[in-house]
Amino acid sequence: MRFLTAGESHGPQLTLIIEGFPAGLAVNAADINEELRRRQGGYGRGRRMVIEKDQVKIVGGIRHGYTTGAPIALVIENKDWKNWTEIMGPEPIDDPESVKKQVTRPRPGHADLNGAIKYGHTDMRNVLERSSARETAARVAVGTIAKLYLKALGIEIAGRVVEIGGARDESERPESIDAIRTITEASEVRCLDKEAEEAMKKVIDEAKENGDSVGGVVETIATGLPVGLGSHVHYDTKLDAKIAMAVMSINAFKGVEFGEGFAMASLPGSQVHDEIQWSKETGYTRKTNRLGGFEGGMTTGMPVVVRGVMKPIPTLYKPLQSVDIKTKEPFAASIERTDNCAVPAASVVCEHMVAWELAVAVKEKFGGDRMEDVIQAVEAHHKRSVAF
C-alpha cells in the first residue's frame, strides 16, 4: 500500500493517488469530508479556515460506494485559488521578476531557505507552497480510508491533545475509544479535562495577544489490534519505527514517544516493562501498557499509544529576524497567513497518519484482494493467538 499527494497551498487543488486497498471496502465522500472538517477545527486556528471548507471529490477507484481494488484518486479543491491564479498559474511568463508576492526573506523555522538553496529558487514561494501544512488535508483524506479499513476489522482509533504551551491535561484516559471521541469532539482543544481546556485556551489567547505561537503534545490511541503486526527481524520492518517516521513527517513535529516514552529514562525496569498474564478466554495479555502496545517492533495486542510533540508554528505576527536572499540585508521575516496554535488540528492529522501505517501493516500481514478475505484472515489470526 502506498499513496502520493501533489499540489500547493495556494494552487488549484490537492491531488491524491492511493494504491493497495482491497475491493469491497465501503467508502463515501461524507466520511472523508467529516474528517476534513475535524482537521479544520480547533481553538487558535487562523483566517484560512474561514476561507476553505474542504470537500473531497472521488474521481477514481470507488464505484457505488465501494472500492474496486483499483488505485483510488481523490481531489480537494482550494477555494481561494481564484485569488492566486496569476501568482501560482502554471503558464510561462515573460518576466518572472514581475510576479507579485515573491518571497525572498526566509522565515526561521520553515523550509524556505534550505529548499531555495537545494533547488536554486530565488522566489522561495516555490518552496513554502509545497511545504505548507495545507498538504496535511490530503493525508487526512488518505487516513480516513485507512480508518474505515481498520474499523471493518475491529480496530478503532482516536486522538487527543495532552498539552498546549505548558498547560497539561493530567486526567486519566478512558479505555473506550468511543468515550475518548465523545469527550474530545466536544472540546475546542480536543482534550479530556474541562479545566485543562480552559488553561490551554488561556495560553493560546496570551500567545495571540503577544503575536506569538505555542506548540504542544498530541496522543493517538488504537485498540483491537492483532498480535504481531510489524516484525523484529529488520530495522525497516519494526512497526513502531514506521509509525514514528510517519508522525515525524507531519509538519512541525519534533518528537515521538510510545507508552511512557521519555519518562522511562528516569524509571527502573520494574516500572517500565509490562508483565504477561494468560486466561483461556483472552489468551496472553499485559497487566499494564507502559510500552504503548509494542515489544520488539511488533504489536502486543494491547492498545497502541503514541504521542507526538509539535513545535510552535514559526510564522509569527511579531516576525523573527532573517536575511533577504537577494540583497543580503537583514529584515523581519515575511508573514504568510497563519494560526497561532494548530495543536488540536495536528492531533487529527496524527490520528490519520497512525491509521495509515497500521493499515499498511495489516495489509502486509494478511494480504487479500477482497475485504471478506481480509476479515476472515484477521478473525482466524485472533483465534490462533488466543489458543496459542
Automatic annotation (TrEMBL):
<feature type="binding site">
    <location>
        <position position="296"/>
    </location>
    <ligand>
        <name>FMN</name>
    </ligand>
</feature>
<dbReference type="GO" id="GO:0010181">
    <property type="term" value="F:FMN binding"/>
</dbReference>
<dbReference type="GO" id="GO:0009423">
    <property type="term" value="P:chorismate biosynthetic process"/>
</dbReference>
<keyword id="KW-0274">FAD</keyword>
<dbReference type="GO" id="GO:0004107">
    <property type="term" value="F:chorismate synthase activity"/>
</dbReference>
<feature type="binding site">
    <location>
        <begin position="130"/>
        <end position="132"/>
    </location>
    <ligand>
        <name>FMN</name>
    </ligand>
</feature>
<comment type="subunit">
    <text>Homotetramer.</text>
</comment>
<feature type="binding site">
    <location>
        <position position="39"/>
    </location>
    <ligand>
        <name>NADP(+)</name>
    </ligand>
</feature>
<dbReference type="InterPro" id="IPR000453">
    <property type="entry name" value="Chorismate_synth"/>
</dbReference>
<feature type="binding site">
    <location>
        <position position="45"/>
    </location>
    <ligand>
        <name>NADP(+)</name>
    </ligand>
</feature>
<protein>
    <recommendedName>
        <fullName>Chorismate synthase</fullName>
        <ecNumber>4.2.3.5</ecNumber>
    </recommendedName>
</protein>
<keyword id="KW-0028">Amino-acid biosynthesis</keyword>
<keyword id="KW-0521">NADP</keyword>
<dbReference type="Pfam" id="PF01264">
    <property type="entry name" value="Chorismate_synt"/>
</dbReference>
<comment type="similarity">
    <text>Belongs to the chorismate synthase family.</text>
</comment>
<dbReference type="InterPro" id="IPR020541">
    <property type="entry name" value="Chorismate_synthase_CS"/>
</dbReference>
<feature type="binding site">
    <location>
        <begin position="311"/>
        <end position="315"/>
    </location>
    <ligand>
        <name>FMN</name>
    </ligand>
</feature>
<feature type="binding site">
    <location>
        <position position="337"/>
    </location>
    <ligand>
        <name>FMN</name>
    </ligand>
</feature>
<comment type="function">
    <text>This reaction introduces a second double bond into the aromatic ring system.</text>
</comment>
<comment type="pathway">
    <text>Metabolic intermediate biosynthesis; chorismate biosynthesis; chorismate from D-erythrose 4-phosphate and phosphoenolpyruvate: step 7/7.</text>
</comment>
<keyword id="KW-0456">Lyase</keyword>
<dbReference type="GO" id="GO:0008652">
    <property type="term" value="P:amino acid biosynthetic process"/>
</dbReference>
<dbReference type="GO" id="GO:0005829">
    <property type="term" value="C:cytosol"/>
</dbReference>
<dbReference type="InterPro" id="IPR035904">
    <property type="entry name" value="Chorismate_synth_AroC_sf"/>
</dbReference>
<feature type="binding site">
    <location>
        <begin position="251"/>
        <end position="252"/>
    </location>
    <ligand>
        <name>FMN</name>
    </ligand>
</feature>
<keyword id="KW-0288">FMN</keyword>
<feature type="region of interest" description="Disordered">
    <location>
        <begin position="89"/>
        <end position="111"/>
    </location>
</feature>
<keyword id="KW-0285">Flavoprotein</keyword>
<keyword id="KW-0057">Aromatic amino acid biosynthesis</keyword>
<dbReference type="GO" id="GO:0009073">
    <property type="term" value="P:aromatic amino acid family biosynthetic process"/>
</dbReference>
